[in-house]
Amino acid sequence: MNIAIVDDEKVELETAETFLRVYIKNFWANYESRIHIETFSTAHDFLYFFCPKFYHVIILGNRMKNIAKFIRSHGDNVKIIFINSREDFLCISQ
């Protein structure tokens, strides 16, 4: 499974990655070696490496809705999760 985390706020990016790694270790330990997490500190960096159908989950900072539209415009059916730390909620795009 390939997961991308994209956030221009360094603390939020590191927090999301740490949370995800701990979650995987605690609940999916048998699959940990099969899960690859990549982090991107800018949307530009992510878009440079983006390849449709490569990622299974993409976690985006809340201000990156245009990136989600770009991903969807390429016919990618990946799960997109928006994080917004100020209001402490997750929004999952289908």
Can you walk through the features of this model?
With 94 residues, this protein is an alpha/beta fold. Helices cover 36% and strands 28% of the residues. The protein contains three helices and five strands, in the order E-H-E-H-E-H-E-E. Strands 2-1-3-4-5 form a five-stranded mixed β-sheet, with helices on both faces. Residues 88-92 have low confidence and may be disordered.
Q: How do the helices and strands line up, and which of them pair or pack?
A:
Blueprint: E1 2-6, H1 10-27, E2 36-40, H2 43-49, E3 57-61, H3 65-73, E4 79-84, E5 89-93
Parallel strand pairs: 1-2, 1-3, 3-4
Antiparallel strand pairs: 4-5
Task: Give me a quick take on this structure.
The chain has three helices and five strands. 19% of the residues are buried.
Strand coverage percent? 25-35%
Low-confidence stretches: 88-92
**Average residue-wise pLDDT:** 87
Largest sheet properties: 5 strands, mixed
SS field, number of helical segments: 3
Query: Any idea what the radius of gyration is?
Result: 13 Å
Order of H and E elements: EHEHEHEE
**Order of adjacent strands in the largest pleated sheet:** 2-1-3-4-5
Give the helix level as a range of percent.
25-40%
Top keywords for this entry?
alpha/beta; 3 helices; 5 strands; disordered C terminus
